[in-house]
Amino acid sequence: MTFRHLPDLALRGNGGSVIAANDEAFAERQALILPHRAQFHTHDFGAKGQIYDGWETRRRRTTGHDWAIVRLGMPGVVRGLVIDTAWFKGNFPPYASVDACAVDEPLAHHELTGWTEILPKSPLGGDREHEFAVDDPNRYTHVRLNIYPDGGVARFRVHGEVVPDPRFLHGLTVDLAALANGALVIDCSNQFYSSPNNVIAPGLARHQAEGWETARRRDDGNDWLVVRLAGRGTVAVAEIDTTHLVFNAPGWASLSGRDGDGDWFSLLGKTRLQPDAQHRFRLDSERPVTHVKCDIYPDGGLARLRLLGHLLG
Hints:
Blueprint: E1 17-21, E2 45-46, E3 49-50, E4 55-56, E5 66-84, E6 95-101, E7 116-123, E8 129-133, E9 139-148, E10 152-153, E11 155-162, E12 174-175, E13 184-188, E14 212-213, E15 223-241, E16 252-258, E17 265-272, E18 278-282, E19 289-297, E20 301-302, E21 304-311
Antiparallel strand pairs: 1-5, 2-3, 4-10, 5-8, 5-9, 5-11, 6-7, 6-9, 12-21, 13-15, 14-20, 15-18, 15-19, 15-21, 16-17, 16-19
């Protein structure tokens, strides 16, 4: 499995922002981190020329190169990059590189220091995705995409492992299943329509595609997913959200917990769910858990799963 199964730390929906670019004459920088694939319509022209769904700079007539800085919505260890030049066929940059840095609080782009190169200057082609694995164990909060000398990039993905700031986890009630806190869906029975990691993504789902949805089952089984929690802890409240799942919500759900490699035990018995609704359950168990399994019966989709509790140790 490639790094692309890991969350996109830069995604706009995960809190990312393109905080600065030296030039965005033809197309705006924020498009780099939008969730959907880049669109293109042959006959769409504006005052600046052909309209592109991406970031595009003017033709450079001086030495140097163009750049855009992304503040990661979820800081962490970068495992891979995707530089997508979709639809940029005669105006793509022939080369790109990526730098990264880490700061303790949001800063203006000109205040950022300590940049480290995580992708050396590498060749690009037009109208295609370019995958680059990254071998760097350090936690970063910002990345800088450099293009040489100018041109357009449709999308920029920064896949990695979330590493939250521990100051805001220990001693507090937190969502142990939150992607932003370092949790991750490590296994699931089916992800036909959408990624299971959507259910632990930040914020609320805006529509059905921003949750997890399985194919229709034609057997006697049921679908499920397993969340590796942000750390070992106890779960006091579970929130199971079927918002936007109007005709394809599961009929029931249950939760099981496991501490390390131990046996699974029940946290929430098989419980009826309603479509397009938020459900909250107080859990009686005080047993520590590192993993939680959510079973849905028989199939369907969830918008979000939240597991509120405390980290131990």
